[in-house]
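Let us begin with a simple case.
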Amino acid sequence: MLSIHSVSSLDLVSKWMGESEKLVSNLFQMARDNAPSIIFIDEIDSLCGQQGEGNESEASRHIKTELLVQMQGVGSDDQKVLVLAATNTPYALDQVHLGDTPHNLTESDFEHLAHKTEGFSGSDIAVCVKDVLFEPVRQTRDAKFFKKNSSDMWVPCEPTERGVV
């Protein structure tokens, strides 16, 4: 029988040192003991904001670390535990790895990318974004021919194009 463990992020926070980590560990252990299980964490954004935020406390870093440790192997067939999380700020999650990088992606572009990257971790997506962002640098580095564009900037081009240098 499927076991469901539903908690709010506030249920996992304690003012006592080390208690939050114990609460997270106990939640995952209970889910493993009662597998197959689903762990649902509401308001995950308040518990796990972006790393490196200026207002991130030492306690918050410890909770994030414990969550990541406990999630190792979750979702594999031998553990039979699934973690679902909800956020009140999905708009903050869409562009986490783009940062302030200018782009003209639409909502449907993000949906298409989400389908193409199903199963990717946040780290996998960060690598993809960085790879795409550096593509112009690689093209410029490897280019042998250049021409001026409409902004009067030199850009890589094919040797057969007009105005090639």
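The second case is a distinct protein. As before, the sequence precedes its structure tokens.
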Amino acid sequence: MFTQAIEKILADACTPAVVRAVEQGQSPAALWQALEDSGFLELLSTEEDGGAGLALADVYPILLAFGRYALPVPAAQSIAARALLQGSGVRAPAGMLTLAGSARREADGSLCAAQVSFGLLAQFALVNLDGDLLLLDCAQAQREPAGGHGTLFATLRWPAAAVPAAIASNGEALRSFSAAIQAAAMAGAMEWLFGKTLEYCNDRVQFGKAIGKFQTVQHQLSVMAEQVAAAGVAAALAFCGSQPVPALLPAAIGKARTAMAVPLVAATAHALHGAIGVTEELDLQLYTRRLHEWRLAEGSEHYWNRIVGEALLASAPLGASEFVRTVTQSA
């Protein structure tokens, strides 16, 4: 029910034209208002706080849809922020709220958060600083674009006077949640990418038949489909469990596996689209650019694979298969 409702809103309010307009600096206020008015930002909030009180698994299809539509506002981050703030005594402020999984304090007391998702747009940021949770006003931060063409990522720097006291000590949970969100976004975007690539290969005719009928193209599509399916399973794992926040290991597996699929999936999509694949007019680049940014957000697959590897070594004498079963069963 919730997924169908959000799909309808996104189909109407988050068209490729809207995504391009936001990238070019136009205000996303109408899109954000549509999401805020629908109540979807409160999906993980408790019923006592006016939310839906959904489980993580119920929210996952919605986060997947955000990726399929290349949503250019931090709706997923705002949903997660409300879950992270539960029990802190602090309510999420109105407006676009994003997550910064790691920040550092400079020698002069200022705070720097690098490559923050939607850092160019967000009005507030929930930040992990060495395990502490801070809520900061982005209007007081210096913003520097931290990506390529059309990026909405930014490095944010707050002066010492604008850095408040910590409001909770679950900062590391914020990073796990942020990584899981990126995994869901990548899985959704890759679903869209595969569907459009398959559609193009069935429509594009060369030498008298659709290129999708050629064995070499079918082979590339099958490998692409395998990667997309594996990424979806891994991302879904991050949102299993009864807790309101993803656990570290499932989130690490989800982020690592989806990130690993990005180079092959994006490259195959561009290759099979041929010369039109590199054009700005084709919607393909709206997704492949984001996929590469999401792959690096909160750490690439190398960072998260190391966390999984260290946990595997610490679980001795369990073998790899027993370790995987333990993680999936606990999730």
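Residues 171-203 form the longest helix (33 residues). Residues 134 and 141 are 14 Å apart (CA to CA).
Keep these points in mind for the review questions at the end of the chapter.
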